[in-house]
Amino acid sequence: MRAGVVAYLLILLLMMWLETTLLFPRWAIAPGDWHPDGLVYEDVCFTSSDGTRLHGWYFDQPGATVHVLYCHGNGEDVAALGDYMDTLRARHDISLFVFDFRGYGRSEGRPAETGIIADAHAAQLWLAERAGIAPQDIVLWGRSIGGAIAVQVAANWGARAMILERTFTSVPDVAAHHYWWLPVRWLLKNRFDSRRWIAAYHGPLLQSHGTADEVVPFEFGRQLFEAAVASPKQFVAMSGVTHNGPSDQDYYTELQRFIERLK
What we know:
This protein is α/β, with parallel strands linked by helices. It has one domain (40-262): Rossmann fold (3-Layer(aba) Sandwich), CATH 3.40.50.1820. The protein is built from 10 helices and 8 strands. It has an 8-stranded mixed β-sheet with strand order 1-2-4-3-5-6-7-8, sandwiched between helices. The N and C termini lie far apart (65 Å).
């Protein structure tokens, strides 16, 4: 009995110690191409509010009226997304800025919620200045934990519109689903409580989630959407799609319509 209690306490301590490693698994990111041939982009260095040096790629689309700040997931970096950003730029006739928050890619620092949100706001300000528009006229696009980042930026500083893919109500909700036998709700410092923050955003929202998502259960995406007071808002359920699987055609169709309405 005593040995079991000791083992359980050791596991709790290990979870607390490894929180950053588990939530931000930079070690699992596949090496990307930092010098891709044929890809046209602007290499950007900028600074967060606390002086942390950050890095991103800007994909300009001449004449674009929609300017997107893309917040990637915790298993990605800028180099892994170059081709995808270029495809989105051409397909939707939009300009995009994708950046690495602290601790990722070529950005300095160590990832933590408060700093990451500051990084995203700094990226929003950079893009607004580059595009010659107000920060609140930037479209925020976030995937997985990037969706939680986008929600907080929109809640605090505004956005023209928001696109959320495969994101969640909060980190404790997801952690409690996977580690139901541990009191993770009491242990986690990085909470990304999107269910609370999204109530402060009132602009257009397009949200999608795969019904077979094994990382962020579909129900959490749906609950976040129901908590949103955004208007208009639309939810696309992607049948059979997993967390890292390709989106279905229905979503791409609705995405195109959503972006066209912003022009």
